[in-house]
Amino acid sequence: MNPWLALTPGDDPAERIRQIGRAHERFLAEKQRPERMRSVVADSWARSATWIGADCTAPIDLRDEELEAYRSAHPLARVMPIFRDLLGGLADDGDHILAVCDAHGRLLWVEGHSGTLRKAASMNFVPGALWDEAHAGTNAPGTALAVDHPLQIFATEHFSRSVQRWTCTAAPIHDPGTGRLLGAIDVTGGDHLANPHSLALVRATALAAEAYLKGLEPARERPTVAALGRDEALLASGTVRTKLGRRHSELLMLLAAHPDGRTGDQLGFDLYGDDVNPVTVRAELSRLRRILGPELLGSRPYRLRTQPATDFGRVTELLDRGRVADALAAYPGPLLPGSDAPGIVRLGRMLDSRLRTAVLATGDRRLLQSWLVSPQGADDLELWEAYAALAPTDPVATRRVAELAREYACNVRATYA
């Protein structure tokens, strides 16, 4: 059974709608995980319930000139002809809508027959609206972004009641060079969309877009390293891409962060703290040299002969130049988040702190919002308060500030009890 498909062969759609609808109402009343439910949907309901109520309506975040300026500069603007060519026929038939959102679930394009668009507008499924799970609950584009996988959401599987008349299929789209999430492509329509063919078509369209974007990449003379938001670094040199293991990822990033080189003792301390074994460090460096080649990794001290372009360095450079919005857009997450190496933890905290401070200092509502929907910002009371002050009508912000304030107050009382 494919967990990303809404229906299995032999399912009666009408009966399935009734079953899921009853499970939905029980979940809302009892707040207990529903049984006989796709795990991707049950997990999404649990996440959605922490943010919104089932009668919510997705808020509109961008309008008019501001929306047009934002989406015209977005990387996915370059692949809209592909989306229209491969999925436009569906959008023109009067039964389906083609939608494209950014990595935060903000709808950029919503296209289709005028009558169908009017029906969708009644639930704010329009350009500029926020359809991430935090603002719209379980839905195909928002949940596809949350789990980073193509999927279908069928009728009453939607968390928000106003969306349960629709069925949708969506797939995430990534930057082919860095793996960074760019957004998602979605087809929304009736219950007949819940079939393997629609999921395959939307997924193929996303892959075609990524292939096209890859062809637009300029030739890179230097190796590149992607290590933000991933536990294992990805090294790209020419057309060769190598996924490194944990220790090799840590060593490569430590060497990239210290272009003048590091001694074996320094690298050992960065990797293991006081519990260092010089033999282990030398063995790891020897294995890394076999991967990188002697032309890239030198010794005495250990250093990279060719300094790679890293996503860590790119974000740092953008912050140095005061380009906070670009730095945040280029930041998919913490440096090697699964690492406990002291040197990596120190570098990661330094970058997180710099970026957070810069975002807060801008006072820009959209930048604050982008930080808050990330894992590192979800519990950041100070930034939630700053965002709530700029968006006083956003019920999600008001609720989150109150929740975090209570949690922190309880923790303080527990500490001094």
TrEMBL record:
InterPro entries for the chain: GAF, GAF-like_dom_sf
Pfam families: GAF
Domain GAF per the UniProt entry, residue ranges: 102-210
Superkingdom, taxonomy of origin: Bacteria
Protein name per the record: GAF domain-containing protein
